[in-house]
Amino acid sequence: MPDAVDRLNAALADRYAIERELGRGGMAIVYLAHDRKLKRQVALKVLRPELAASLGGDRFVREIEIAAQLTHPNIIALHDCGGGDECLYYTMPIVEGESLRTKLDREGQLGVDVVCRLAEDVGAALEYAHKQGVIHRDIKPENILFHHGVPMVADFGIALAVQEAGGERLTEMGISVGTPQYMSPEQVSGDRKLDARSDVYALGCVLYEALVGEPPFTGPSAMAVMARQVTDPVRPITTVRPDVPVAMVSAVTRALAKAPADRFDSAGTFAVALKAQEPGPSPVAIHETPDVDARRCIAVLPFSNLSTDPENDYFSDGITEDIITQLSKISAFKVISRSSSMRYRQTEKTMREIADELGVGMLLEGSVRRAGGNLRITARLIEAESDAHLWAEAYDRELTDVFAIQTDVAFSVASALQTALTPGEQARIEARPTDNMRAYDLCLLGRHHAARLTAEGLTQAIEYFEKALEHDPAYAAAYAGLADAHALSAIGYRPVEPRDALGQAKDAVFRAIELDETLAEAHAPLGHIYAWFEFKWDDAKREFERAVELNPSSVQAHQYYGQYFLPMRDYDSAYVELKRALELDPLSVVLTTELCWPPMYAGDQERAREQVLKALEMDPLFPLAHFNLAQTYHFQGRYLEAIPIYEKAVELSGGVWFIRSYLAGAYVAAGQKERAEAIGAELLEDATHGMGLELGIAMVHDVLGRSSAAMDWLERAFEARSPMLSAIGLDVMPFNSVRDDPRFHRLLEKMRLGGRR
Questions:
Q1: Which of 4, 5, 84, 10 has its CA nearest to residue 52?
Q2: pLDDT above 80 (res 576)
Q3: Domain 100-273, CATH 2.60.40.10 — does that match?
Q4: Contact status, residue 675 vs residue 659, Cβ threshold 8 Å
Q5: Residue from 80, 138, 516, 585 carrying the catalytic annotation
Q6: How many angstroms separate the CA atoms of 725 and 535, rounded?
Q7: Contact 521, 477 (CB under 8 A)
Q8: Residue 331 has pLDDT above 80, yes or no
Q9: What is the pTM of this model?
Q10: Would strands 362-371 and 150-153 be described as parallel, antiparallel, or unpaired?
Q11: Which of 7, 129, 344, 681 fits 134 for a cystine, CB–CB 3.0-4.6 Å?
């Protein structure tokens, strides 16, 4: 079509050079084009002339701009849109791969494992978009593209843009929004208020075709197919593929229910149901987090301190952490946390070895030289597999330009990886946290000491954060750091009264959010406070979700959110969030250990033990791992096997109270009551020093059968807001002697846990 290409080149000459046609669809023609402004190739989709003429450009562009804000690893971003009333277009990145339609045309049927992976990735994209209020309306194999093998959804929001812009004129012209073989019954019926369940139906049609080899409904015409969508039952998958697992057949059949109320509420739930274990589900289903394109998985290695003073290590570490934070604000990226990245400060490992260990495709390294008020920062983005340098820059600036440098690094990395940013992401990255460089320096020192997670380190961190706030009373990040340090103190990292530390944490976190509502580092600690100390579960959930939204790569947010689900008895969700945290911090022995909690609390001790042994391989002297390993034997009634492991955990931890309390329970169960009595006496003595041990003492009284004393101490624990109190309703906690006590049930009601037993 040379005439069409010539006309298009003439119309878009100021921005794009059209090279050739790539393909045609029901609504648009796709061209390979060169973006003159950004100097890159793009896929340029031009709406068919008859469709463009009926829509009008302004409304179409407004709707496209909304869809363009979607950024997800499994969604192909929209770069640009525009045109006049008779030439409407939008652009996307060039996908290096094929469409699902091409794959199905070539292979016919796909393997069960391939279908599961497809459902996970496409389901994740849909789940994300639905939470943003965007329904795709045209899910089909042509709109699912494989980029380096990763399924990605294209044309998000295009169908809605066409419908909203065209309205009744499309109906008058006989044009339907959607593809008949994949349209839900309600979409066929002309319902314009579609919700997530319509996309679930379309995904069900796609997966049915991938399993069977053809869509669930076919016919001689589009009208015939749409009529069958509304009236005909679907042919059972097993008539063609009897080997497909029962769970998968059941899930796809449910997704294809005629009534939306009979389908899955979300695409994510649908994807999970496809993998249900047989003959019956495990107490905790194992969900694999959808893989992110390796090119968008990034680790920021410790920036080298090239200053003459080695004491400036804290400053280069702070720059590293700030760049990690900036990149983490981009939802399309998976950014490895500081604690895992910092393990490679001095290493002889190759870039490829580091990338393999961290599960990333990209590495960002650099150096920092600070001399008085001058600053030199270098940064290089390296593709691990090829060792190719995708971007590099050196900045010679004044110290006051440090935030501008961090912003430029984040934008440059996004550009190098062809990642579009939403307006919100761009604004958060460009925000300047403080204008006072002395306050910034003190805040870096505070974070440096807080990362040690010791009583001394937290005490020093609090002092530095407070000094930073003296220099800049409006420094939100310093308040967030102060809040987190006090919150960690409240759960036992410092010998302070929990209630006092909690009050200080709340004051600081509320001030941080008042100053900067977009600070994820403030929302996560606030959710932690609401959940574990104030039992405001709905408020906590809202804060965790906000923290994850603001910083999808926040380890703390996913870790706290996972812990939140445990007292809710939602062990499946707890596992998903804790696993996500571990993926972002893969070298963390703490998170490796905590991932045993969901199966352990759900009663699957063998699986919990398998997980905790991974932590002990990483660090054979880690106390929490020994404690949790002992619990897996304890909860199976294997007390003599649990006792020596508990004792080792007590020794390694320096006598942490909750480990001693569980050890007392194992002693009683093994017939060694006098040893449990000794632990109770020790805890009572320690409690006179104000250590917040009420819950531990209650546990010992309970295992010794002293129910009245146990309840007295439980009520004291509630008043003192003892750490771990929210877990008392779980079946694995002791408290067997008080479970029928009305006071125990009233206590659960006070904690808003009464209906979750």
A1: 84
A2: yes
A3: no
A4: no
A5: 138
A6: 10
A7: yes
A8: yes
A9: 0.59
A10: unpaired
A11: 129
